[in-house]
Amino acid sequence: MRTTDKNKRYPIPGFHYEISMNGELWNTNTGRLIRLGSDGRYLVRKQKRLYRFSVSRLLYSVEHGVSPDSIQGIVIMTEDKKTVLTTRSYYCKNVIIPFRHGSSQRDLVQRYREAIRIAEVMIGFYEEGNMEEMVSVFTIYESKVKDYMYSGGFTNSQDVVKEAWQSIITRVISSISEKKLFTIDPYNYLRWCVRNYFNERKRERMVLVGTPERRKGQMTYDEIMEAL
Fold first, then answer.
1. Considering the chain, what percentage of its residues have pLDDT values greater than 90?
2. Is the domain defined by 9-95+217-227 classed in CATH 3.90.75?
3. Alpha helices in the chain, H assignment, sequence order
């Protein structure tokens, strides 16, 4: 799969789908372009069973010639857009858990100083109403949080990342303004928000597929199966 043509399609082993290097997925039976889910994963069908796969897992399966449902472990996307298969423990340690036991004393001191600075900003907001400085405490991490969405395997879609960030930062600022949120570690809190956001999207999608009573205008289970 070493090519500069990002629009070229590659068959996914064991499934009637094709995927391009830019993460677009097609159903080879119907020729339809499959829409990426709001949780950053694709809903695909194999015989009568439904699966939800991340873009990174599908690209990895194509590159290594293995069915995505047989991959043991977690596939992540590196900053240079390469797929890497790793274990759950490695994923938790290096992606989910930001703290490193090997942090130097200087790093720890810097973290505490930064926490004090942020606490002062938050106090200033509640006492003096300095909204701009408070908001900047979180928005300064926009680029890092978006990179986390990619590297964490949540999504490979720029549109999904943009939508997720806008939703998350709006919730955070609203919660602070309403005095419902306390944190002196904005970056790690935003990472938690990312995981929570995509978990919510996942639950919403599962309700759509698994609940027999549908809201008016939604697709039924049979309609979803037919479209896959």
1. 18
2. yes
3. 55-64, 88-91, 105-128, 131-139, 142-151, 158-177, 186-210, 221-227
